[in-house]
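To assess whether the prediction recovers the assembly geometry, we first specified each molecular entity separately, as shown.
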Amino acid sequence: MRETAVARSAKKSAVPTAPEVPEIERPPQPQRYKASKDQMMRLYREMLLIRRFEERAGQLYGLGLIGGFCHLYIGQEAVAVGLQSAMTVGKDSVITGYRDHGHMLAYGIDPKVIMAELTGREAGISKGKGGSMHMFSVDHGFYGGHGIVGAQVPLGTGLAFAHKYREDGGVCLTYMGDGAVNQGQVSEAFNMAKLWDLPVIYAIENNKYAMGTSVNRSHAEPLLYRHGESFRIPGFQVDGMDVLAVRGAADVALKWVRDGKGPIIIEFLTYRYRGHSMSDPAKYRTREEVQEVRENRDPITSAERELESMGVKEEELKAIDKEIKDIVVGAAKFAEEAPEPAPSELYTDVLVESY
Amino acid sequence: MATELKMPALSPTMEEGTLAKWLVKEGDEVKSGDILAEIETDKATMEFEAVDEGKIAKILVPEGTDGVKVGQPIALLAADGEQVQPSPPSGGEGQSSVAAQGGGAAASSARPHPAQPAAESPSPAGGEGKVPAPESAQPTPHLMETAARDLVADVAETRDEPEMPEGTPLVSLTVREALRDAMAEEMRADERVFVLGEEVAEYQGAYKVTQGLLQEFGARRVVDTPITEYGFAGVGTGAAMGGLRPIVEFMTFNFAMQAIDHIINSAAKTNYMSGGQMRCPIVFRGPNGAAARVAAQHSQNYGSWYAHVPGLIVISPYSAADAKGLLKAAIRSPDPVVFLENELLYGQHFDVPQMDDYVLPIGKARIVRPGKDVTIVSYSIGVGVALEAAQELMGQGINAEVIDLRTLRPLDKATVLDSLKRTNRMVVVEEGWPVCSISSEIIAIAMTEGFDDLDAPVLRVTDADVPLPYAANLEKMALIKASEVVEAAKAVCYR
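The predicted structure of the complete assembly is given in tokenized form:
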């Protein structure tokens, strides 16, 4: 059938053909962000805070102070930090899946209340009722923290719908992992986002493994930034281990979306060093593979090199490390000492009204 | 001062583990993130990473040692340039003898509980919701607080006598092994049977239920899917319509909510809508109900959701024998079956009859403990809680009969009503929400069909009517407890 159609159009026959469809409009290729020393220092500090926070969270899990599932962001820090450095708190919104600690820290949310949520204490950001996977800060425009793979994608699309509806100029940054891309609801959301040109950036954090299944074993189209093509959503791929490349991509995407051109997809090539969750033995990859990334592509080590090339001395970096460690130790201490929720909290927050 | 490296807790329920392999030796410099050792829990082998940098001054527990308690010191880490005297370590609950024994050969003698799998054996101490005062630098690892441990303890303290022909030899199996055996036996017997789901093949099952199936049956019959529940539930349903016998594994039934349209609209209604022409012989299986501290989106009992739907068979077994016999029956059934397992039960041991083909009837409840004073009806992990309560009630002079429903649809009303006729009092125990639940249904049956046998209103013990909270103390309040069942049973006996 397809052969025939091609032949016909080649001969320009009189048989009616489908109306011409314009090419998908595409944004310019993003450039690596040119950061000032101060900006670079800020990005570095934020990434380091996430790294040290997550290491401590892993340790508290090992001590039995954090329970249930706990998905660490170690290795992926540049993605959340680079993207969110370009967003405007109070105007834009952010939503992600269950690997959410880093995204909250990158948005400037107090490490103490995040850690206290991980230990299930009343002082936690969800009063201890949500845990690692279910954290929210409406004040920051951070809408979670969602435990079901892919569920945040239609939700983020809905947040973008609200931005457009209210004409508040905001953009919703919707994160998902490589695994989530396969959920049917993601395709459904893509379609509506483009159909209505909603202001949403879909940030795919491709860390190569959906739990234990690699991208090549689960995606017929392993170039994930192309998954919007059939919905006419443009996309591009970025080195997610380079915070400046991420920031450069964020600026292009934000301009695109704020200009009213509708959704955009960015695929970040990144890597998680730890297992999928604390109880994943990660047998599906070799220790050498992990080590290779740590040694050659680590986002924090790269940022250190960048800073050194800007003239920052090793002592300064050491001082920052010490400062960050103190913040994290303080957060852990707070989270360990804070009291558990009052028993009466069991029945609060189920409904808003009394009926 | 050297830092003690302590045995970490590597899974939600781990209490001890095997120090399988040291990847560093004494004198090695390590930095944060380096892998120090491999540690085996009953579920997996995990890597133990360094948090601080320093030098491995002394290895206290040699590789190959079993039964190393969470929190026990396993090595000493010296800060840069520090000298450490190789002195015996302090603390570790008198476990330092393990360190002194040396060599893998001595390992088995250090194992305190030879029979139970480490991670899921109950903690007799219980560890009331207290958090240890944080010590300056190195707090001791302890068990994660969770009410799930109490549920598991109730299960472990009960005995189960499976239905079988007299004289059949028994073998002790975990529920996990029993489920795997059921699938493997049916796959050997029927070429049409295959398994489909996330991480079922190469990963060997997210909860290791499909362990070894890929090796025996190959990738054609043990199929890894992308994370796309709605899609693969539909693919499985279509394959069943096309004459195959799919077993669709959901990593948990919480994720099956993405797929519930196919389970109900496609699978359950097909036979009826086609006037009996088109069958849909499929099994949807996976863990259901609360696990350990995994919070609201991963802790839900779907028993009543599916039992509501005509056209479905819903099974929710308690013991390993029932899990095996009923899963085999489910796979052979010409109807679509929702098979609700329980993660907390996976590691529990039960006696399973050693028979070539152990198949149980669908739709038949079982009296797991005969009694005469009060009937306690339950299913899944609630049966363990009910049995624990029955034991306690015995001490108080009340002889409770415990019924395991096993199949939630069709519900075995006859067994329930017959018991009620004899005891005249009833309590329903359900690890799930109370409203529009299986317990609601049992109470309705007792009211409409057993009214004249009732000497007291039927009471129920269920989870609190809230999304399951994460915090340890609230989780404990929310889940069912044997003590609540004891109180309810006494109340219906007017005691």
